[in-house]
């Protein structure tokens, strides 16, 4: 997985923090509930535990995620705390696409699949823009399953940690 | 379209069953309605009537859908009954991405476009995780058009039929 | 960016018109609001200001967007008026996939990111089918951020202008 690194980039978007707010409906009463979730996503493009891989782009699978057009497939660990050693409660599976001509924005489409903890067996479906040079980025929660059926909501993503030299990152979902 | 087959896989995820439940809103009253839909999707990666094709992955367009990172584009027939000979009521058009490191999970983003029958002219927009080694998988209905405007909901997908040797399948949406 | 042009195609889908209707919710009252937005998206596959690029397909990054399986990444200007000279109020960033076997339909997943004007700082998340040989195509608004948090809705897309020889287009969102 030769993902070229742009050494001139002075930001690193693979580690981020997200604040999640949602409204759930019950049938037939449709009573809204509002909840805040906090969790962390670890996005590693390099290393023996790499969880993201470029598969298409203007230069094919060798394209850099820092360039417009590159498509990345991810299966990122989701943890309760900011360190990879903290309890894994799920996976973030789907796609990131570099969708900004200057290379500084991603379009995200993925599922957060909870495999342990309070929300085990449920999922959240995410779609949104990640202009990663901004401190905070909001994204949409478009759907969910299990206890999150009929969910609507949004999240806020904040870069938590970056390791430019190795393209590794941690994501906090709040 | 040379889609390599992994002969060691003992499951086949291209045939599945889905139970669909949704809530529709009317403007300005926003009265929810709940409905169950049942339909079948036929997902054939091989044969003269192939309706799914790998277009990207770690090995480029020749990547196997059974491997992490592979992107598949689909235009699958949707029928009223479980056999391909039953009445075609629509098409399932969009993308499947293999988004699990061990190759056993897909991320789905597609439209169900109804072209005949009761829902002709309407669509459902789907996003979800398909961990196809599980008997039942839930996914999100994120939006819709026509009679399904303002829809919210979820679906349940069950593997109905598999033909590993030929990578052909039938999907039931209930 | 060598995007092959199919000279036999007698339509051009990269210019379209969209009517957008949405319902926003406020917490805790969840009062629906209904609004119509009109805006234009300029989709240029050629020229020095090209804003869309093919990155995958049956023939790799050289695949034509007019053929089944091709994946396009876009960062299209969004303007108030139909001409590119009118005020730019945002960008449409995401993916188009040719998802119809005969090449005449796309599956769209993208964000409309408002960067100026009344909706500056907000986004709309879009998913839908674009059968571009039809005069009008409806699509889903699956989520939003900023003032469009908890949004639901749909849009109508109409081809506004086409320049087949150069694969350039203008999109009106109404």
TrEMBL record, chains A, B, C:
TM annotation in the entry: 12-28
Keyword Transmembrane appears in the UniProt entry: yes
Pfam families, per the entry: Dirigent (PF03018)
InterPro entries per the UniProt record, alphabetical: Allene_oxi_cyc_Dirigent, Dirigent
Subcellular location, record wording: Secreted, Extracellular space, Apoplast
Any one Gene Ontology BP term: phenylpropanoid biosynthetic process
Coiled-coil parts of chain: none
Keywords: Apoplast, Membrane, Secreted, Transmembrane, Transmembrane helix
GO CC, one annotated term: apoplast
Protein task: Dirigent proteins impart stereoselectivity on the phenoxy radical-coupling reaction, yielding optically active lignans from two molecules of coniferyl alcohol in the biosynthesis of lignans, flavonolignans, and alkaloids and thus plays a central role in plant secondary metabolism.
Recorded family membership: Belongs to the plant dirigent protein family.
Assembly with partners or alone: Homodimer.
Name of the protein in question: Dirigent protein
Organism from which the protein derives: Eucalyptus grandis (Flooded gum)
Organismal lineage: Eukaryota, Viridiplantae, Streptophyta, Embryophyta, Tracheophyta
């Amino acid at each position: 997985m030769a993902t070229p690194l742009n050494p001139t980039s002075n930001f690193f978007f693979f580690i981020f923090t997200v604040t999640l707010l949602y409204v759930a409906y019950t049938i037939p009463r449709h009573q809204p509930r509002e909840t805040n979730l906090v969790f962390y996503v670890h996005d590693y493009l390099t290393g023996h535990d790499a969880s993201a891989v470029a598969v298409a782009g203007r230069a094919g699978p060798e394209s850099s995620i820092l360039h417009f057009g590159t498509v990345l497939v991810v299966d990122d660990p989701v943890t309760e705390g900011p360190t990879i050693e903290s309890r894994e409660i799920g996976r973030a599976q789907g796609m990131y696409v570099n969708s900004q001509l200057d290379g500084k924005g991603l379009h995200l489409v993925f599922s957060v699949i909870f495999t342990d903890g309070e929300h085990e067996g449920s999922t959240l479906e995410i779609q949104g823009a990640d202009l990663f040079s901004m401190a905070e980025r909001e994204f949409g929660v478009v759907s969910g399953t299990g206890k999150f059926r009929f969910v609507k909501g949004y999240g806020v993503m904040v870069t938590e940690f970056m390791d430019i030299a190795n393209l590794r990152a941690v994501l906090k979902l709040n």
